[in-house]
């Protein structure tokens, strides 16, 4: 949902039933926060899973481990089964991946990766083709909350208002889709977009507040309904270089000089969850989202390839991720992450985070990265202490909240194309972060980051020839540091 900058409540009332939620609620700058330890030890993930999915901490850890195994198996079978694949989903009760196949001859291959095979009538390609025909006929659809591919039911599911199934059936028939492949679901859902450089933090346009999705090289990604190409943002400052809405709900905001995108997501518990990549988690896996209105909440992935209708005045979004995670006005554009893998940016939904049922839709991250040709920023977490293995050593000191650039004598260094390596060590108990910046004209841009929660960091970066500098930030603690660096 989108919120006016001057009066955060007006749009929620005036835009009913289509309200746009911003992910930023205040103009105060967000303080830097430490990146969390690896997923199994990230307290924010475990706490939210316990709260939102009713899991004990040990159950949450076990589920995350099982989901990581299932995700690996999911990628393996998708790469090898071809036309025999009928869909995949994570079965929480079983604690593993279920793989639908159209031929019993594929059972052995599925079992070989630790998954459970299930014989189904329709291939995943056939279901996607049926949904594509419905998407193509969307202009003639009656008032429907949306439609989706349901892999577990091996069907395309069309949602309709109570008592309106006959209209939905007539539309499906007119679209030329086989009725035997379609299931109908009565729904009172009334979805609306959710609007308002770390994932989940708020930012502002001249009119609205939204949330940062994920940091990428040069800026961050968010929801397209947050702003149009050319619009500017503050906190962080930037400009919409790309924006699409409806059909898709995606945007790329190129940040201004001095902003530092970080490969992490705000957990709204005083820390961050490091982003490790963008591997798609299977249906049924847990997912946690971060946003400026409601903070950090978790749910499960219900479906992929869902179409959601935000109403005649707004339009439809296709190929979305449908989840049980809650969100509210102001959360749009924010991060959705499974474990440490980026899944989507918040588009819209129904319900709220006050305890009732909720449905939230996300624009998948891989499509955004491909559309705008940008690279997701990740964080490798803490590095290793210098010990003469990373290069020539230099020492210095920095106060809490302060910044020092190395080499201090010249402020920067000229390098040929090749690999830059550095190891940083600060005082015991401190949290120092290390960044490699490259000059482009008069602007310095961060090209590599190590921002773990400890006193040691390591950066390895292979780049083109140019002028570079190391930046050391003291997030917590003050004192002497040692920096070992090798440059090409």
TrEMBL record:
Pfam families with a match to the protein in the record: Pro_Al_protease, Trypsin
Cellular component terms (Gene Ontology): extracellular region
Annotated CDD domains: alphaLP-like (cd21112)
Region forming the signal peptide: 1-28
Region (Disordered): 329-350, 376-395
SUPFAM superfamilies tied to this protein: Alpha-lytic protease prodomain (SSF54806), Trypsin-like serine proteases (SSF50494)
Keywords: Disulfide bond, Hydrolase, Protease, Serine protease, Signal, Zymogen
Gene Ontology biological process: proteolysis
Keyword Chaperone attached: no
Residues annotated as domain Peptidase S1A alpha-lytic prodomain: 122-178
Residue ranges of every copy of the Peptidase S1 domain listed in the record: 221-368
Domain of life: Bacteria
InterPro entries: Alpha-lytic_protease_prodomain, Pept_S1_alpha_lytic, Pept_S1A_streptogrisin, Peptidase_S1_PA, Peptidase_S1_PA_chymotrypsin, Streptogrisin_prodomain, Trypsin_dom
GO function term, MF aspect, one: serine-type endopeptidase activity
The protein's name in its UniProt record: Streptogrisin C
Organism of provenance: Actinokineospora auranticolor
């Amino acid at each position: 949902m989108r919120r006016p900058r001057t009066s955060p409540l007006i749009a929620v009332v005036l835009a009913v039933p289509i309200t746009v939620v911003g992910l930023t609620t205040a103009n105060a700058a967000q303080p830097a926060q430490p990146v969390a330890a690896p997923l199994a030890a990230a307290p924010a993930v475990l706490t939210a899973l316990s709260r939102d999915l009713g899991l004990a901490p040990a159950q949450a850890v076990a589920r995350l481990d099982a989901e990581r195994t299932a995700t690996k198996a999911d990628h393996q079978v998708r790469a090898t089964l071809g036309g025999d694949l009928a869909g995949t989903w994570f079965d929480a009760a079983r604690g593993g991946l279920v793989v639908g196949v159209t031929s019993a001859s594929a059972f052995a291959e599925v079992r070989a990766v630790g998954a459970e095979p299930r014989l189904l009538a329709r291939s995943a390609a056939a279901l996607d083709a049926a949904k594509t025909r419905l998407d193509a006929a969307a202009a003639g659809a009656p008032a429907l909350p949306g439609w989706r591919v349901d892999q577990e039911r091996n069907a395309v599911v069309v949602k309709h208002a109570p008592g309106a199934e006959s209209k939905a059936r007539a539309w499906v028939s007119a679209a030329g889709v086989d009725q035997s492949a379609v299931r109908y679901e009565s729904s009172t859902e009334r979805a609306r977009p959710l609007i308002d450089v770390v994932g989940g933090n708020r930012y502002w346009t001249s009119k609205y507040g939204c949330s940062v999705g994920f940091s990428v090289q040069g800026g961050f990604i968010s929801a397209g309904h947050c702003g149009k190409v050319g619009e500017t943002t503050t906190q962080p400052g930037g400009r919409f270089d790309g924006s699409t809405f409806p059909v898709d709900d995606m945007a790329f905001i190129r940040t201004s000089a001095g902003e530092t995108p970080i490969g992490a997501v705000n957990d709204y518990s005083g820390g961050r969850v490091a982003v490790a990549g963008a591997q798609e988690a299977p249906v049924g896996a847990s997912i946690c989202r971060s946003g400026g209105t409601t903070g950090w909440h978790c749910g499960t992935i219900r479906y992929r390839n869902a179409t959601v209708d935000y109403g005649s005045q707004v339009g439809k979004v296709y190929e979305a991720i449908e989840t049980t995670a809650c969100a509210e006005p102001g959360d749009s554009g924010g991060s959705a992450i499974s474990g440490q893998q980026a899944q989507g940016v918040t588009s819209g939904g129904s319900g709220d985070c006050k305890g009732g049922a909720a449905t939230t839709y996300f624009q998948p991250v891989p499509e955004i990265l491909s559309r705008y040709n940008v690279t997701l920023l990740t964080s490798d977490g803490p590095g290793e202490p210098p010990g003469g293995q990373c290069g020539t050593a230099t020492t210095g000191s920095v106060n809490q909240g302060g910044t020092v650039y190395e080499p201090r004598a010249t402020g920067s260094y000229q390098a040929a194309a090749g690999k830059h390596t550095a190891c940083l060590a600060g005082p015991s108990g401190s949290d120092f972060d290390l960044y490699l910046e490259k000059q482009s004209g008069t602007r310095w841009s961060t090209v590599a980051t190590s921002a773990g929660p400890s006193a040691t960091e390591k950066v390895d970066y292979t780049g083109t020839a140019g002028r570079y500098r190391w930046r050391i930030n003291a997030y917590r603690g003050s004192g002497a540091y040692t920096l070992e660096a090798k440059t090409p």
